[in-house]
Amino acid sequence: MTTAAQTIRLGHSPDSDDAFMFWGLASGTVKSDFQFEHILRDIQTLNDWAMEGKLESTAISVHAFAYVADKYALLRHGGSFGDGYGPMVVAASQIPVASLEEIVIAVPGKLTSAFLELNLFFEDTFGTNANLKYEVVPFDEIVPAVQRGDFKAGLIIHESQLTYGEEGLYEIANMGMWWGKKTGLPLPLGVNVVRKDLGHDAVIEVSRCMRESIEAGLGNRKNA
Fold this sequence. Notes:
Elements: E1 7-12, H1 16-21, H2 23-26, E2 35-40, H3 43-52, E3 57-61, H4 62-68, E4 72-74, E5 80-82, E6 88-91, E7 104-107, H5 113-126, E8 133-136, H6 142-148, E9 153-156, H7 160-163, E10 170-174, H8 175-183, E11 187-195, H9 200-219
């Protein structure tokens, strides 16, 4: 009698860096006794699901890990850091940084690393009593919302950090550059985790698969 392979639901975003990281698993290049099911969602949804312990393994924000460390173990592979690069506040006009405390900023989620970094930036810029006014908006709707004038500024992540200029928006504050100047260190953004209740052997196997998936992508850049 053949035993069915255990399914590991693997959560990650459809973003290009995640697609590259998980290509080895998605393509079948990496072999395992586990059956991996790829669940593609935005990072805030993955953070919320991690709070519930919904998926066996998932990408989450560094910020969110502080709230789920009791359920999930941090994997050694696939972390995302920005070196002078990271989330940024953009606007439809070149408004002064000082005006950010007076307006409502569209943000991609309260558990995102970007939101934590914006809070730290506000405290550093405006003092410990800084007044950050914000509204949560799906990350892929922030640029259109700022373009329409629904918000005077938005906190952007993912590919929007590369394309905002083409969309007619202006950089007002760059969290990656601010963090680099303040600390001299790369900016932590995202991590991969695995649920602890799977057991030690399963955690080790998922870690191996994650490492080999990244290695497979690096060895097959054109296909990945």
